[in-house]
Amino acid sequence: MGKDKDTEKREAPGGQEMAADAGKENAAAKPAGEDPKPQEEGSEKSPDNEAPKKPEGDGDAGQNTKAEKKDPRDIRLEEMQDRLMRQMAEFDNFRKRTEKEKSAMYEVGAREMVEKILPVLDNFERALAAVPEGEKGGSFAEGVEMIYKQFIKALEDAGVEAIEAVGRQFDPDVHNAVMHIDDEAYGENEISQELQKGYKYRGTVVRYSMVQVAN
User: Fold this and answer.
1) End-to-end Cα, the chain, rounded Å
2) Which of 153, 170, 173, 214 fits 189 for a cystine, CB–CB 3.0-4.6 Å?
3) How big is the chain by its Cα radius of gyration, in Å?
């Protein structure tokens, strides 16, 4: 038994040393400065842990966007109205252009017809000029003259008019000079004789007057 007591005495200091070493290891394992106490309830949270705040006005903006969004039927109606207005404008332009083209074609056709009629009118004038003086009062000559006057009246009503020549100043826009003479009885560039009568149709020259110019 005595031996056992001595053994306990020798082992006791070793056991204390082992306990001291274990305490040191635990102290080394704990981080420095760590608060051993748990966080109390109701304490303030770190700003990093706070939930993000909702921006003000987001709800109102969403409502306004929904309110401003148009009905698809209204959009479709506006598109159809715009298309209708465009088509009406195009049709109006087409109508005006067609009327202008028809009018131009009518003018061209009428001028061509007048050009074909003018030789007949020239023959009427030649026939009247060829009637002898003794027969000018006869029924045949008067009948021809009446037909000639009726023909002239019909052409005038259609817009055909004769170009004045004799006694007028030469105008290259309406006269065609084919002869020139020197005569003191006439002024400078004055038309002394008309060889073939010229005509206009609605202000446009159909046939130039063929004339003789003095001086």
Assistant:
1) 179
2) 170
3) 61
User: Given CA atoms 24, 30, 31, 32 in this order, what sign does their dihedral have?
Assistant: negative
**Both tokens of residue 73?**
């039927």
* Residue 117 neighbours by CB under 8 Å, 6+ apart: 155
Neighbours of 186 (CB within 10 A): 18
Amino acid, res. 33: G
Quote the pTM value. Answer: 0.55
Look up the CATH architecture of domain 160-215. Roll (2.30)
For residue 162, count CB atoms less than 10 angstroms from its CB and return exposed for 0-12, middle for 13-18, buried for 19 or more: middle
Domain boundaries along the sequence of the chain: 79-158, 160-215
Q: H helices then E strands: how many in the chain?
A: 4, 6
Indicate if 160-215 has the same CATH topology as 79-158: no
pLDDT tens string, the chain, 215 residues long: the values are 444 444 444 444 444 444 444 444 444 444 444 444 445 444 444 445 555 555 555 555 555 555 567 788 888 999 999 999 999 999 999 999 999 888 888 888 899 999 999 999 999 999 899 888 888 888 888 998 999 999 999 999 999 999 999 999 999 999 999 999 999 889 999 999 999 999 999 989 999 999 999 98
